[in-house]
Design brief:
heterodimer; A: about 550 residues; mainly alpha; 4 domains; 26 helices; 2 strands; elongated; disordered N terminus; B: alpha+beta; 2 domains; 6-stranded mixed beta sheet; 8 helices
Chain lengths: ~550, ~375
């Protein structure tokens, strides 16, 4: 049994599933030793005749369940407080219900409009927009929609805000006046309440019925009674439009038939003119194209935006040169993260080596020095670099005093990439040193001695024997440093200036300043995907099994 | 047995001293000459300086004073990788990230030996330790004994004339250890290499070596072939350290060329071989091997001196009986008797008389 246990780390305490696996692996290895010819015939059977694999699984199941029960509290905690919010946040990168929820009639009416025709849509679309905007304005939703669409086309925000103020004062009271003149009963809310309870009426007046439902829902949300509120012009407008369209056929009320007979002679209001009067941009097909392009519930718009593309009424195209910023930021973030990781390896490797080869007492003392930065605030450390690196700072002063640099040509070392790399290397260095140190500690010095006794020079012994064994530490440290730096925010914000900021600074900007959460989510998703891709590549090349933290 | 008086020593330590802290000497004035082809074991308790000596020879430690010569050439200032000495480490130190083949071809690669040559040599070395089928594996996939063989093959693959082994069998179980002891000596003699072997296991030292150097307190206490070491220890440390030994303390009463009369502390006087006593009146420790003590009168030689003894304990050990006696105030006097059909089994409390030949009873330093 003793030589079977040599394939993995063994613990002195009670057996774990891990032990069983090691043992199984050892058995497998021994099988190979004894039968080098090829695989054994058929599966190995346990004493009771069941395949050994199955009985082993059964034996391990209880242990697995127990292990699961032990991690369950943390798992649930993480799911609720971490995974779920992140999933929700990432979901925002494609979520786009705001258009279809705010402008439901318009979205439907726009379906038949050809955005390539170069003309604004026909009157019914404006009528639908009128209905939608009326309710949006009542619920103060039109500004939000304007903001959303403004991400895609500038000027839409003010267009919506401006039109929202005007939509209640459109000349549609012409219809109100003409219809109430036919029968004063139309002005009574009770008439409408009764009329809209009849399915025949509703079928005859579909647009009105939908508008009425939104009206009553809105009043209900305000705590008002539909039977007591005055009927708005918008409902008379929809009534007129319905009567013109359907002729009121199938309606139960005589009042409807009477109105239907009369509408032919009504004085009409052209809603497109009303909108154009409010803002002539409504005649711009680009505006309508944008609305139509972003009508679906889910959109790739944010993601396109994140890679400097845009979804226009004419399809997907690159953004104008002067608006392209995200690809550059992504590239810069990755490039600088790689630079930071490399500097951390270069600076951290010798330190870890020294630490691992010193006597424990001295090593512990030095380890405190390595960890010391952890105990100071991140902001303090970053600000200290500002003091060090700025043009009137310590380093420049020293260089000038030494005469290496002229006073009028002080080095620019901060608010650029150099400053960010220096400060972040300093801050992330412990994350490189610690895994390196713990891996190096496990490399016995006899390996180096053995290599030298076999004839290797110091360098060959290091490069062929020591270094390969320390690669897992470099891998672990690099993954830590790279992933931390790719999403770093505070330090680039403080010392990065304009050329040294990361994509995360842009994400933060969209989260807290521009409030374009969808774009922030899309950028974040891409960042996550990049990290996972790199992780996958790393796994393919180096192998994630080779990552050791100690 | 190797010729110990040879003048052209292959390995030579000349007045070598070593101190780590500048205050105490770990190795004190070491002088040692080893002829080519000898299997020399450095034996001693831990901290006796034997491993330090080995490391100085390998080049991992520098001698504080004195000179180490290899084949007549001082090597004090030659770095380890240029000494061309093969070495087997206690924990084998097989490179875990390389396969067995890569491990073995490493010393050949750094010597810039061509690929086909390398492969041939690696194969030969693997066959030599009967591990020919294991070249593609990694060290972690081998058992301790297999790793041990690979470590041996790696130390031999570049054909060094001198191989150092630092407690190479320490991690193996008893049976495997005995098998490997035989294999190592066999291989060493077959290849004609010179071996310096460090161990703290005296059985290993006695069974494997041409000569054994017993270390204690930074000095070689005695350097001799195994039989001589066991039968004629030069001082009481060696007598105690090698094999089982009974010690009786006393004072020298009379001293001549080959006989010393020693008065034991309880007044008994016995005949001894004077080995390490200088003059009458010196305190001495008398050493007798347990298997040389007889208690059956018919087996004792005429004129043997008899001492009274009380049986304290009888232990049955299979091939031998081990009996603890109380003799001349020493309650830990052990005798061993072979388990033969006519052998007597002593009972605790029994009063007996024991005796031995004067030449088996050695008067050593106190």
């Amino acid at each position: 049994m003793s030589d079977l246990k040599s394939t993995g780390p063994q613990t002195a305490d009670a057996p774990t599933p891990e032990d069983a696996l090691h043992e199984a692996a050892a058995y497998a290895a021994r099988e190979q030793v004894h039968a080098p010819g090829g695989p054994a015939d058929g599966p190995v059977l346990a004493a009771d005749g069941t395949p050994l694999k199955r009985s082993l699984n059964r034996a391990l199941r209880r242990q697995k369940m127990r292990a699961l029960a032990l991690i369950a509290p943390l798992l649930i905690f993480v799911l609720l407080t971490f995974i779920a919010p992140i999933a929700d946040m990432l979901f925002r990168s494609v979520e786009n219900q705001i258009v279809s929820e705010t402008l439901p009639e318009t979205v439907v009416a726009l379906a038949d409009w050809d955005s390539e025709a170069g003309a604004p849509p026909a009157e019914p679309v404006f009528a639908a927009l009128y209905v939608d905007l009326f309710f949006a304005e009542a619920q103060k939703l039109h500004t939000r929609l304007g903001t959303r669409l403004n991400y895609e086309k500038t000027g839409v925000s003010s267009l919506f805000r401006k039109t929202g103020r005007r939509v209640g004062r459109f000349d549609t009271d012409t219809y109100t006046d003409q219809i109430t003149a036919l029968d004063p009963g139309w002005a009574e809310p009770a008439t409408w309440v009764a009329m809209m309870q009849n399915n025949g009426n509703r079928a005859a007046l579909p647009l009105t019925a939908r508008a009425w439902d939104r009206w009553t829902a809105y009043l209900a949300s305000e705590g008002d009674d539909p039977a007591k509120e005055d009927i708005e012009d918008v409902l008379f407008t929809t009534l007129y439009l319905d009567l013109v369209a359907t002729g009121g056929s199938g309606a139960a009320d005589a009042r409807i038939a009477q109105a239907a007979a009369a509408v032919g002679g009504f004085e009409t209001v052209t809603l497109s003119e009303q909108f154009a009067a409010a803002d002539k941009d409504w005649l711009d097909p680009e505006v309508w194209g944008t609305i139509k392009a972003f009508a679906p519930n889910y959109t790739a718009g944010y993601f396109l935006n994140s890679v400097d593309m845009q979804k226009t009424p004419h399809g997907i195209e690159a953004r104008p040169e002067n608006q392209q910023i995200y690809m550059m930021l992504f590239k810069r973030t990755i490039f600088m993260s790689i630079m930071i990781t490399l500097s951390c390896i270069l600076l951290g490797y010798p330190v870890a080596w020294i630490l691992a080869n010193l006597p424990t007492r001295t090593a512990n003392l030095l380890m405190i020095l390595v960890l010391l930065p952890f105990w100071t605030s991140l902001l303090v450390r970053t600000s200290a670099w500002k003091v060090m690196l700025q043009q009137q700072g310590v380093i420049n002063d020293t260089l000038v005093w030494l005469g290496i640099v002229a006073d009028d040509s002080r080095l620019v070392m901060i608010n650029n990439q150099f400053g960010t790399i220096v400060a972040m290397t300093h801050i992330l260095l412990p994350f490189m040193i610690l895994p390196l140190y713990s891996v190096m500690q496990t490399i016995q010095p006899t390996y180096l001695r053995a290599a030298k006794s076999l004839g290797a020079t110091n360098w060959t012994a290091f490069w062929r024997v020591y270094f390969p064994q320390s690669v897992p530490g470099i891998g672990a440290g690099s993954i830590l440093v790279f992933i931390l730096s790719i999403g770093y925010y505070i330090t680039p914000e403080i010392v990065g200036g304009t050329t040294g900021t990361f994509i995360s600074n842009r994400i933060a900007y969209h989260i807290s300043s521009s409030l374009n959460w969808g774009l922030a989510a899309a950028l974040g998703s891409i960042l996550l995907a990049v990290v996972m891709l790199l992780y996958w590549v790393y796994d393919k090349i180096v192998g994630i099994d080779n990552v050791k933290l100690g | 047995m190797a010729d110990t008086s040879s003048n052209d020593a292959f390995v030579e330590f000349e007045r070598v001293q070593k101190s780590y802290d500048g205050e105490t000497l770990v190795v004190k004035d070491l002088n040692l000459k080893m002829p080519k082809g000898e299997f020399l074991t450095m034996l001693g308790p831990s901290g006796s300086g034997k491993t330090t000596c080995l490391m100085m020879l390998a080049g991992f430690e520098t001698a504080t004073h004195g000179e180490i010569k290899l084949d007549g050439r001082p090597i004090n200032n030659i770095p380890p990788h240029k000494r061309g000495i093969g070495m087997v480490f206690q924990n084998y130190a097989l490179f875990p990230h390389m396969t067995i083949n890569e491990n073995l071809s490493f010393p050949l690669e750094v010597r810039k030996i061509g690929k086909s040559d390398r492969e041939a040599k690696v194969k030969r070395a693997l066959d030599m330790v009967e591990m020919g089928d294991f070249g593609g594996r990694r060290p972690a996939q081998l058992s301790g004994g297999q790793q041990q063989r690979i470590a041996l093959a790696r130390a031999l693959v570049f054909e060094p004339e001198l191989v150092l082994m630092d407690e190479p069998l320490g991690a193996l179980d008893k049976q495997l250890r005995e098998k490997m002891q035989f294999e190592i000596t066999d291989l060493a003699h077959r290849l004609g290499i010179t071996v310096v072997y460090v161990t703290h296991d005296q059985t290993e030292a006695l069974t494997m070596s041409d000569r054994v150097a017993v270390f204690d307190d930074g000095r070689i206490q005695q350097i001799a072939p195994p039989d001589e070491l066991y039968e004629s220890p030069q001082n009481s440390f060696v007598a105690q350290f090698i094999g089982e030994n009974n010690t009786l303390e006393g004072t020298v009463k009379e001293l001549s060329e080959n006989l010393a009369l020693v008065e034991l502390d309880d007044g008994e006087v016995i005949d001894c071989m004077p080995v390490n006593v200088n003059k009458v009146g010196d305190r001495t420790k008398v050493s007798i091997r347990p298997e040389r003590v007889e208690f059956q009168k018919d087996r004792l030689q005429e004129g043997a001196h008899l001492l009274k003894a009380t049986v304290k304990e009888f232990i049955y050990m299979g091939d031998v009986f081990r009996t603890r006696l109380s003799v001349a105030g020493n309650d830990d006097f052990i005798i061993k008797s072979r388990n033969a059909p006519d052998q007597v089994r002593l009972k605790p409390g029994e009063q007996i008389e024991i005796g031995w030949l004067p030449q088996d009873c050695r008067a050593l330093d106190a």
